[in-house]
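User: Just a sanity check before I run the rest of the batch. Below are the structure tokens for the first item. I only need the designed sequence back.
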């Protein structure tokens, strides 16, 4: 049914010239009236006659394929070949078995009816002599009268065999991959079972537990208490408690506010309340505060913190927030970084009391074996002396103008609100010098500050 529907579809697409060529090539194998009727209905009768004469069957239609190729209807021949390939590939095993059985039957039929087939062939040729073209077309169908069988030419057999081989190879590869994955999974499951069922887990004794705990130990160190010590029991702020800090938290920045104190000597004082100046100092992701400088007012009955300055692990240093005209204090501990602060603040006096807390990650051995050392800043520079015109290397450690002025009995005002002051520790150089913005160097003489014209190579570092 499917094959006859395909033939109807193919014949409906033939042109009139193709029909006439088809009827002519078939020649005297069909009656004259069927050969001369080239209409669509006449072509169907021609097909019906070919089926009756077993020139074509639903299993063997090579004759029709060759006819289409001879009249150059290649599209029709191609469709018939595709149909033949699709039908034979779905039942290749049955076809091969059927062919073997038919060959056996064919041999028996030839042995029994050989003479009759030859006489029948001679009679048929005498009645209807065939042309050379028809003989070449009809040659593959010599055994059509004995049994229906599948015919495969060498090209189709090789193409079909190659297709089947590729499909089987692909399926074999997929099956091999699946089996390999299953084998690996089984091995992993087996090892896990052996690990958890037969191998005893090591017990955590006191030594092992201590070793594990010592891997990450946070060491907290309290700094000194600055300001009025009598007020340390009356703290008004505590970062750890107010902010609910944990050991893993880190300081990411500091917000500072200060104002001018009108009732005293116009000195800038730190104050959280009623501030006129605000500054936010933010740290980088890989940066910590490693050192803090404080400036304390000692003139008042209750001393207060009037200035503060921060140093970081990346070598940055802030300007002094507030005023640096006070007693110089510095706090830092080797390998420790700032974590939080506690203190007391007053609306009138500013910060009256302050204490810093420092932290480091270490082990118990490191904590016991390492005694924290206070870190100070040392700065040096080079200049040419005006006295002997020699090249001088001068070095000093940090201090404040308030302290060095009283220590050396100096006169005059401070150099600059942003200046850092250093006391000489080298053999040559000024007794005190000031550095502004890490580039400009000043020396103090006769109550005034003077800038070095030849100062160079300004280098500052934090040392224990």
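Assistant: Here's the designed sequence for the first item:
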């Amino acid at each position: 049914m499917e094959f006859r529907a395909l033939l109807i579809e193919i014949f409906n697409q033939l042109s009139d010239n193709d029909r006439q060529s088809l009827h002519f090539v078939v020649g005297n194998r069909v009656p004259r009236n069927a050969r001369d009727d080239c209409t669509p209905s006449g072509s169907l009768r021609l097909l019906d006659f070919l089926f009756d004469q077993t020139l074509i069957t639903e299993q063997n239609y090579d004759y029709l394929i060759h006819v289409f190729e001879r009249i150059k209807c290649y599209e029709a021949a191609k469709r018939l070949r595709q149909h033949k390939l699709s039908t034979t590939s779905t039942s290749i095993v049955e076809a091969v078995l059927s062919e073997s059985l038919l060959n056996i039957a064919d041999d028996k039929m030839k042995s029994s009816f050989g003479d009759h087939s030859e006489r029948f062939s001679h009679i048929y040729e005498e009645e209807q002599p065939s042309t050379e073209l028809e003989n070449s077309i009809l040659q593959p169908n010599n055994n059509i009268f004995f049994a229906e069988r599948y015919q495969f030419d060498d090209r189709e057999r090789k193409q079909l065999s190659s297709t089947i081989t590729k499909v089987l190879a692909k399926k074999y590869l997929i099956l091999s991959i699946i089996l390999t994955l299953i084998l690996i999974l089984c091995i992993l499951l087996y090892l896990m079972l052996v690990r958890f069922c037969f191998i005893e887990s090591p017990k955590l004794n006191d030594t092992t537990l201590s070793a594990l705990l010592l891997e990450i130990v946070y060491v907290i160190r309290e700094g000194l208490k600055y300001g009025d010590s009598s007020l340390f029991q009356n703290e008004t702020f505590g970062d750890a408690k107010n902010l609910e800090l944990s050991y893993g938290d880190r300081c990411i920045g500091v917000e500072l506010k200060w104002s001018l104190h009108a009732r005293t000597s116009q000195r800038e004082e730190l104050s959280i309340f009623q501030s006129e100046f605000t500054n936010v100092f933010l740290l980088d992701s890989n940066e910590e505060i490693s050192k803090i400088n404080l400036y304390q007012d000692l003139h008042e009955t209750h001393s207060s913190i009037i200035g503060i300055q921060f140093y970081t692990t990346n070598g940055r240093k802030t300007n002094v927030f507030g005023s640096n005209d006070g007693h110089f204090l510095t706090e830092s501990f080797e390998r420790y970084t700032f974590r939080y602060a506690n203190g007391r603040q007053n609306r009138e006096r500013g910060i009256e009391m302050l204490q810093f807390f420092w932290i480091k990650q270490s082990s118990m051995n490191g904590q016991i074996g390492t005694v924290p050392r206070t870190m100070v800043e040392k700065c040096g520079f080079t200049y040419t002396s005006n006295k002997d015109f020699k090249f001088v290397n001068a070095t000093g450690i940090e201090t404040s103008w308030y302290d060095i002025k009283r220590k050396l009995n100096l006169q005059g005002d401070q150099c600059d609100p942003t200046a850092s002051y250093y006391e000489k520790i080298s053999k040559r150089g000024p007794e005190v010098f000031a550095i502004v913005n890490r580039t400009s160097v000043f020396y103090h003489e006769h109550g005034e500050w003077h800038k070095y014209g030849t100062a160079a190579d300004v280098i500052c570092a934090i040392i224990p």
